[in-house]
Amino acid sequence: MNIALWVVAGLLAAAYAAGGSLKVVMPKEKIAAFGASSKWVDDFGGTTVKTIGALEVLAAIGLVLPAALDIAPVLVPFAALGVVLIMAGATLTRVRRREFALMAVDLVYLALAAFVVWGRFGPESFG
Fold it and tell me: Please, what is the Cα angle at 108 between 107 and 112, to 5 degrees?
């Protein structure tokens, strides 16, 4: 179980570090040009998109660094909980935009983050 939690947390961290970094450094118009799955940025201001990106980068760091460095590893499930909240917001945005097919990916990320929350607060906690 511990290995599975590390793998899932690592994959989530990689995805959120990459996606969050793009949101922080690119203007929202360029993000929207990526395609249909990125049109959600049209519903938000540029500062909000950058804030979401910064939160994603912080979550990515929090998913692995505290445990890898053995400095406050109890922060890992809280970072995963942050990802759950981000993805809940993403899912609500998809519902509001009636992008139900695209919502499936958001729900997968939400479920993976919830798995890390459950595992690190529960059977494989660092505490």
Answer: 115
pTM of the model: 0.93
**CA gap 83, 16 in Å, rounded:** 9
Q: List Cβ<8 Å contacts ≥24 apart for 88-97.
A: 90/40, 93/40, 93/43, 94/40, 96/43, 97/39, 97/40, 97/43
> Could you report the average pLDDT of every consecutive run of 10 residues in the chain (127 residues)?
96 98 97 94 96 98 96 96 98 96 96 98 86
31-66 per-residue burial string, b: 16 or more CB within 10 A, e: under 16? bbeeeeebebbeeeeeeebbebbebbbebbbbbbbb
| Residue 126 phi, psi dihedral angles, 5° rounding | -85, -10
Query: Rounded CA gap, 49 and 41, in Å?
Result: 7
